[in-house]
Every structure is written in C-alpha cells, then in structure tokens.
C-alpha cells in the first residue's frame, strides 16, 4: 500500500524492479511493466484519489507460469472505460493528459475495471517475456 502522492512512485519502482528481477523478466518487459504501473499509479493518485495524500493506492502483482496479473486499487468512484476520449483523435492530440490508459492498453489487457468496496480496482493481464 502506497500513500496517495506521486512521490511514492519511487517505492513502486523499486518494488516492480525487484519483482521483475525475481521472476527473471526480460529488460524490455520490465520497462513495459514499469511504464504501465507508473501510468496506473499516477491515474489512481490524480483521478481516483483526487491527489489527497491521506488516501492510499494499493498495488499487487501475481505471477504464474504464463501470465502476470497486476491490480491497482484507489479510493475513488471509478470511471467508464468506454467513455474516455480517444487520445489519438486529432482534437485530442495536444491535450496535456489523457494518454495513460491508452498506453496501458497498448501493453496490457485490462481484464477488470470495477467498484471494489469503497474504492476502484483496475486489473491488468500481461504476457511476460523472460531473459
């Protein structure tokens, strides 16, 4: 569990690095995982928790022989995944935000985006590559 501010990302970075090393993931997969975890964490802090430092973001990684499941939970009300603007639409190209889930979707499969008790849970599935 991380405190609800973006400076906690350094803790997440180290966690993902150690996890990836323990699992023997390739450098490319590690970099993709880091990028998506950063995007999901920043979205959880900024949009889910509305940058309230008293709220937490929980992240879990669960590896099996063929897949990696990652869960990111914040204290927000959630969002409609299908209602988000397309960041590659010419009208949105110069917006300063709105690309996080687009990046995540290009690397991982979003298998759940749902209410979870008093928060919101995003679950991602990856097909890792190993060294």
Automatic annotation (TrEMBL):
SUPFAM superfamilies to which the protein is assigned, alphabetical: ATPase domain of HSP90 chaperone/DNA topoisomerase II/histidine kinase (SSF55874)
Domain Histidine kinase/HSP90-like ATPase: 14-125
Annotated InterPro entries: Anti-sigma-factor_SerPK (IPR050267), HATPase_C_sf (IPR036890), HATPase_dom (IPR003594)
GO molecular function, one term: protein serine/threonine kinase activity
Keyword Transferase among UniProt keywords: yes
PANTHER family for this protein: ANTI-SIGMA-F FACTOR RSBW (PTHR35526:SF3), ANTI-SIGMA-F FACTOR RSBW-RELATED (PTHR35526)
Name by which UniProt lists this protein: Putative anti-sigma regulatory factor, serine/threonine protein kinase
Biological source species: Pelodictyon phaeoclathratiforme (strain DSM 5477 / BU-1)
